[in-house]
């Protein structure tokens, strides 16, 4: 995709949604970190359902450690891989209490040393909590980057590096939110809804999908 087209791609998404944000629910940076860890291979909707009651009770790493692994499992048992996620959340909470005064470190490399925190999770926290210009590439962004030609790459890291290099300055902070939402609601995996896509003319995906035909009554 040409430089001018990339700018226009983001400009249109920004015009439609000037202040995008994650769909995960949280009250502070620590809760955001926990929610993102829990969201791996799970939907934001499913995570939010599980964390609403949990986050009423637990707002700090120390409170999570006090809650304990078994009670945490009860809260998150509707989420996939909840056993391993509970173990990681308790472990990372213990580390935050022990080594960081109960605070979430504002450093991507440090975040990725925590149990259950990979590069994507760290990028989400750095961007959403601290305003860093990071690009958290999930399955939606990987698909959108490759399908549209915005940031083609064979691996998640390839796509991230391409986005990092090619995303224009005015759009860098919110880019990953726009792309995730675009992939989640319009540029869907099985059947992209090209007929209502605001950037369809800039996208290299062919053939474009037509609007479904509705039968008359």
- Looking at the overall shape, the CATH architecture of the largest domain is Orthogonal Bundle
Distance between the termini: 43 Å
Question: What's the tally of helices?
Answer: 11
Average pLDDT rating: 95
Strand count: 0
What portion of residues belong to β-strands?
under 5%
Instruction: Using the coordinates shown, work out and report the CATH topology of the largest domain.
Output: Endonuclease III, domain 1
Q: Report helical residue fraction.
A: 55-70%
Count of separate structural domains: 2
Query: For the CA atoms, what is the radius of gyration?
Result: 19 Å
Poorly predicted ranges (pLDDT <50, ≥5 residues)? none
Structural class designation: mainly alpha
User: Briefly, what CATH class of the largest domain?
Assistant: Mainly Alpha
The biggest sheet amounts to:
none
Instruction: Sum up the overall morphology in one term.
Output: globular
- State the CATH superfamily name of the largest domain: Hypothetical protein, domain 2
H/E element string?
HHHHHHHHHHH
